[in-house]
Amino acid sequence: MATPTESLPATSMSDQPVPAFELPATSGKTFSTQHTGKPYALYFYPKDNTPGCTTEGLQFRELHTQFATLGCAVYGVSRDSLKSHENFKAKMSFPFELLSDADEIACKALGVIKMKNLYGKKVRGIERSTFVIDAQGVIRREWRGVKVPGHAQEVLEFTKTL
To answer: 141 near 131, Cβ under 8 Å?
Structure first.
């Protein structure tokens, strides 16, 4: 569990308006939380081209058509550079955009940075988390400390209830 200064909001962010921010996205695009009108899922992951993050992205890729049928966009977010994201997206054939949060703008706004153990050392990193935001810009569900197997399917099932 992270200390309060390391992020995790004191209370759930569900049913709250998503904080306003913009991030550079792959394909030369810019993502803004102010693009209301359709629901979207933001999944935060630690690092491009690592086993768990690749598996998570592939699961969202496999379900992408079903998300699109529901009118729900999917975005992956990490602190990696746009160049890293472009390579990762191309290598894995992700049909959705990846967002670069090198300055931790979104990470801080949504409280996903925490202290983690990496090979016995304490490091600041992204806690794997997902947020579903409705067409009005309200966070309708959040998952923190996500375990990858089955997670994308769980997000899809929730999206069906919007």
So the answer is: yes
> Does 53 participate in catalysis according to the annotation?
yes
Looking at 13, 41, 53, 77, which residue is catalytic?
53
Query: How many structural domains are present in the chain?
Result: 1
Give me the residue label for tokens 């209370």: 11
Assign 12 a pLDDT band (cuts: 50, 70, 90): confident
CATH number of the domain encompassing residue 106:
3.40.30.10
Alpha helix positions (H), the chain? 51-69, 82-92, 105-109, 151-159
pLDDT tier, 11 (very low <50, low <70, confident <90, very high otherwise): low
pTM of the model: 0.90
- Tell me which residue range forms the domain holding 49: 4-159
- Amino acid identity for residue 43 in this structure: Y
The answer to whether residues 25 and 75 touch, using CB atoms and an 8 Å cutoff, is: yes
Q: What is the pLDDT of residue 118?
A: 77
